Structure formats: structure tokens, C-alpha cells
Amino acid sequence: MAKKQVKIYTVSQVNTMIKTALEDSLPSSMLVAGEISGWKVHGSGHCYFTLKDESSQMPSVMWSSSFSKVKFEPENGMAVIAKGYVDLYPPQGKLQFYVEKLEPAGVGALQLAFEQLVAKLAAEGLFDQEHKKTLPRFPQRIGILTSESGAAVGDIADSIYNRWPAVSLFLYPVPVQGEGAGEKIAQAIENVNRFNDKYGLDLLIVGRGGGSLEDLWAFNEEVVARAIFASKIPVISAVGHEYDTTIADFVADARASTPTKAGVIAVPDSEEILAQLKQYESRLSYYADSKMKMAAANLREVEASSVFRNPRLIIDTAIQRLDDTQTAIGTALRLLVENLKYRLEQFREKVSVLNPQVQINTMQIQLMHIVSALPIGIERKLKDSKVQIGQYERDILAGFKRSVSDAQLSLASVESRLSALNPKAVLKRGYSITTNKSTGKLVKSKKDVQKGDIILTELGDSSLLESIVESKKG
């Protein structure tokens, strides 16, 4: 009996059979609930992660085309419901769950995306009141960004024209729902701002009528929020009904709960303004009338004054004051002149007493007396001086002789002492005196000379020896 031959399969063949078996036995689409783990977005846009529960886990893949439709930001630990199919990845021989749609468990994807974006933009300060621009009180040109086919444009226009007919409205039609609507709304806001030098808009209204969260989602997209925040033109957000709230409402400079309410916020009520103007007119009329009555009363008072009854009185009074002033000036000048004359007379009397000529004559008489008495006094003084000089001469001569004798004795004593103290006296006993020729100082130690210095040695016979210092020892 022939031996039965065993078939050998390649790895690829085995994986192909497993893949075929899975496709035949498992549904083409299923919903899987689990928790995200190891979430990673590749540079290609594809997402790789693991879905797990308390006891099992399953590798999962989501292609970029599917991930681009996800509105929220998946995170590790987030409970989700994934829609997709199970298949084998042949190169590695592992089962993978290919996710086509991803929803957060327990809360809608759009609601979660809304909450995540609100938290993100709030942290960046896009909702802060300090960034809100003031709406113009009386706008003249208003732009409206909405769908040209929707009811919102009519509601906004009717509300504005009913309140303030003088305004000009400009419609910029944009899609307000559906794929790509958010990008087109943001682009329209940017274009209006870029060309506003041409448009001259004072205000911009962005909005649409009510609808579901999905219908209003274009006004919850980040690109729209950032375009509103960057707008230099003040923006009113008018999206949905009273209970609808979008991220555009948070970022805009003002929020209208409905498109109709946008007109109430955008422009004042002409009837209210007219009523205010009438009130101002009434007040102005009252104030003007009061001022006129007061002015008339003042005029009557002026007309009744003595000035208007007798205008000549002012001139006559001024002439009288001028006369009085002239008289007073004349009196003052006369008194001043008399006072100056009196003082001048007093000065004249003092000067006459101190007449220089009188003083000179008196001094000449005194000088004549002195000159006449001078010879007699001189002769008397000379006689007295001769007697005194004789005595002085004798006293001086005797004193001089004594002084000479004393001086001679003192001189002899001094010479004796000087001779004993003369330093050169010791030279006769064989000593010598050495000096440094360059400095002229006595050489008392080796510190007083340097090598190469010239020294002079004086001997007892007054002769000098000149030497050169070659070395210092000791």
C-alpha cells in the first residue's frame, strides 16, 4: 500500500485561508464597544490604537479618510463605540479591527467635540470680554453672511429696516450647513475684512436659522471661531433659536438669540430715537425760552438804569474826576517843590559853615605860628642834644672797651673748644675721612656706596686719595 503524501502550506497560504474563513464567517460590519489605548496618529493621517475591555484587547486601525470625519479628539482611556470589520493583516499574520466610524460612548460625538473645542478656545482667551469690540451706535453699512435661500436673511433685513430704514445692507451668500460649510464661512469673513476699505462696512452679522446640532455644526468649527476672533469689523452672531448656543456666539462681539434679534442689537429703534429727539427739542425750546426771558429782563433793567436815562452823566462825572485829579496833582507838585527848596536852603547853610576857603585861611595862620616858633625850638633842642651826646659818647666808649675785652676772652674759649671738636684734628693722629664722590655723603657703612662708585679719602695733610669700589665684603 502506497504511503499517503502530506501537503505542505506556505505561511501566505495559511494566512489567506484564515482571511477567507474570517470573511465568510464574520459579518462585514459590526459595532464594538471598548476603551481606547495606545492611540497614535501616523504622519500619513492613519490612526493605530487598541480597543480593550476588562479581559481582552484588539489591535485596531482607522484610515485617514475615515478619521477626517471624526469631529471629536479621541484620547487614551476614552470609552467609544467603533463601527468596522475584522480582517487579517497578512504581512504580520495578525487580526485587526478596521474602524470606519468612531463615536464616544454615553455622549454624542458632536457634543463631545463641542465641549472639547470650547475648553480649548476658552483656555486661549478667545471668549474673554477684553477682546470684544464695541458695536457702532448708528451703523450705516451692515454686511450679512448667511445663506441666500434661507429665511434668516429675510428675518434680519426686516428687523433692521423696521427699526432703522436709513441703513444699507449687503448680503454675502455662504453655505451654512454641510461638508465644507465652516471653511467657506471663515473664508468669507476673512475676505470681507480684507476688502473692507472698499466695502466700508460698520458691522457684520453672521448666522442662520434654527436646526439640529448637526445642522448648526458649521458655526461650531474652530476655523469659524478663529475667523470671527480675528475680524476687525465688529461681529454679531445670530445662529439658531433661543435655546441654540454655538461657539460662534462665544467668540463674537455680541450674540443674538435669533436672526430677528440681530436687527434689534445691530441698529437703534428709529421711533425711540425720534422720541428722544423730540424730548431734546422740547428741552432746548424750554431752555431757549428761559434764556430769552432772562435776557429780556436784563435788557429792561439796563434800559431803566440812569446811564440810559442820562448818558451825558457818565461823561460829566468823568470830566469832574479829571478836574479833581488835575487839582490834586498840582497841589502835590507845589508841596514837593517847596519841600525841596527848604532842604536846599538847609544844605546851603551847612556848606557855608564848611567853606573850604575859611578852613584854608585858618590853617595858614596856624602854619605861620609854627614856622616862626620852629627856629627857637630847634636851637633849644640842639643845645640839649649836645650835652646828652657828650655823656652818651663817654658811656658808649667805656662800654665798648668792656665788651671788647669780654669778647676776646670768649673768643679764646670758643677757639679752644672748636679746636677740640674739629673732626680733622683726628686726621693728624693717622685717621682719614671717606666720602662718596657722586653723593658727597660720608661713607659710614657699605650701604653708603655701590659697586663702581668713586670714593674720596682725605688724610691728615689735607691730601685726597680717589678710589673705585670694586666689591663689598663683610
Low-confidence stretches: none
For the largest sheet, list the strands in their spatial order. Answer: 1-2-3-5-4
Rounded to the nearest angstrom, the radius of gyration is 66 Å
Helix vs. strand class: alpha/beta
- Secondary structure tally: strands: 13
Mean pLDDT: 83
Strand content: 15-25%
Could you name the CATH homologous superfamily of one domain? Hypothetical protein af1403, domain 2
Please state the second-level CATH architecture of one domain.
3-Layer(aba) Sandwich
Q: How many distinct helices?
A: 13
**Largest sheet, described in full?**
5 strands, mixed, barrel
Shape estimate: flat
The H/E string reads: HEEEHEEHEHEHHEHEHEHHHHHEEE
